[in-house]
Amino acid sequence: MADPQTDLRNSEEFPVGYGDIQLTSSDRVIFHFQQWLLIYMSPVFKDMLMIGDAKESSNPPSVTLSEDSKTISMFLRFIDPMKDNPALDFTILSQLLEAARKYQFGKIKDWVASWLNGSDPAMEATATQFSTKQAIELLEVGTTFDVPRLSQLALRILIKAPAHELFVSKLARSEMFEHLMKIRSKRIDRLQQLLKLVLCGGATPRRVRSGQFTIPDTIYIGICTAMVDLMHAIGLEPSYACCMRNWSNHLNNIDYIDAILHKKKVFQEDLQELEAELPVLP
Fold first, then answer.
1. Which residues are paired to 63 by β-bridges?
2. Which of 85, 214, 241, 244 has its CA 20 to 30 A from that of 47?
3. What gap in Å lies between CA 272 and CA 204, rounded to an integer?
4. Backbone angle region of 146, left / alpha / beta, with phi > 0 → left and psi within -120 to 50 → alpha
5. Angle between helices 148-158 and 107-117 (to 10 degrees)
6. pLDDT tens-digit map of 69-125
7. Is the peptide bond before 60 cis (omega within 30 degrees of 0)?
8. Going by DSSP bridges, is the β-strand pair 62-64/9-10 parallel, antiparallel, or unpaired?
9. Segment 17-24 long-range contacts (CB within 8 Å, at least 24 positions apart)
10. Tally of CA atoms within 13 A in the half-sphere of 151 that contains its CB
11. CA 256 → CA 120, 219, 245, distances in Å?
């Protein structure tokens, strides 16, 4: 049987000598930190350390925490004035916010909200790449910890996700599921109307009266026929990727016609603008 003491390892970021108390994570990493700073920043740590939960018999005193090392490392970096705030890691955001709530350190939630509301290109790039599964998890985090922007970022992914990926028990039980279905239905309607205007009406709403697009009747009939399949695809997945994929499947054979190329460009521009919007919350 492994010796529990030999299983321990010291944090590289908060090594021996960095502080006068040891915090041991659930995965057996020891963080050395300043006791006075924990007491000052967190009323929970204050009670824990001053009432006697810390093992005073050890030198330095130690406390075993239920959080893993990744969460504790990020939590301590927020507290420590000598450390830069870490880049937000969406994979442990739930654990971080839970730790902030548990130890009554509200500034972490404030920072998360501020960062999500900012204009950091890296954050925006990451937020557009969430998988449906990640978005479902982050929607739950945003709802549980009352972080509206996070809920919006998650909904922006889910509103355009393939329908079969949405009907999972975790999301179906969510308070947000009914709202998601409503705004998704509105998105489908908007896309289908946009497609009609572009293909059969000659333009998008802002150009519908311009008359700049004209095509032969035979091509027009072919477009309207293809549109039936496009409309069905949008109903199942109202996303830019789905629209362009199906456009390629049904209309690429006539893309060489200038009018169709113009229509495709207009449709792409309007669709990208629509997809960048953050959905409203209930």
1. 23
2. 85
3. 13
4. left
5. 50
6. 999 999 999 999 999 888 888 999 999 999 999 999 988 999 899 888 877 777 878
7. yes
8. unpaired
9. 19/60, 20/60, 20/61, 21/49, 21/54, 21/60, 21/61, 21/62, 21/63, 22/58, 22/60, 22/61, 22/62, 22/63, 23/62, 23/63, 23/65, 23/72, 23/76, 24/62, 24/63, 24/64, 24/65
10. 18
11. 39, 12, 17
Which band of pLDDT confidence, cut at 50, 70 and 90, is reported for residue 171?
confident
203-224 pLDDT, tens digit per residue, is: 433 333 334 445 555 566 666 6
CA distance 54 to 75: 19
Confidence of residue 254 (pLDDT cuts 50, 70, 90): low
Distance from CA of residue 141 to its chain's centroid? 10
